[in-house]
Design goal:
182 residues; alpha+beta; 5 helices; globular
Length: 182
Amino acid sequence: MELREERPSDRESVRDIHLRAFGDHGLVVADLVDTLRGTITPAGGLSLIAELDGQIVGHVMFTRSLLDAPRRLVEVHVLSPLAVVPEHHQRGIGSALVRHGLKTLAERAVPLVFLEGDPGYYSRFGFAPGGDRGFRKPSLRIPDGAFQVLELPEYEPWMTGTLVYAEPFWRHDAVGLRDPGA
């Protein structure tokens, strides 16, 4: 398996991965990825793919957001989304993508990485509940357990506060859970 940064020629394959991996929410996630891609620059953000036997089978994105800390705004990253084509689940592809991305972000001196996700899955990488670490989630729609953070080597104890998602997450209504009965 090869892990590498996404190329422009990978876009349709990446979109297809998210459509297949996220089922009923696939279109929202695929559209979010298309928008977030425009926020990634050489100075910040990361879009990685996993390629197996010449086919793209997984994708992860890390995009810049802000932490509204008392001392100043801090540039942080958000891991979202992560997807692996269903027929390749349980083979370590998602884990390899996450580990590679976190290593790259640590090398780039990113202090914190946040996500919304399953604590049972993401705790293996060192993610912990954000509220327990003094961080506030960007929306009340995010379940407490799903709001997670990983402190990288550049993290300093004064870096606490509220996570502010990048605008595309709000535009695509991809923050937290909506109550369909409300």
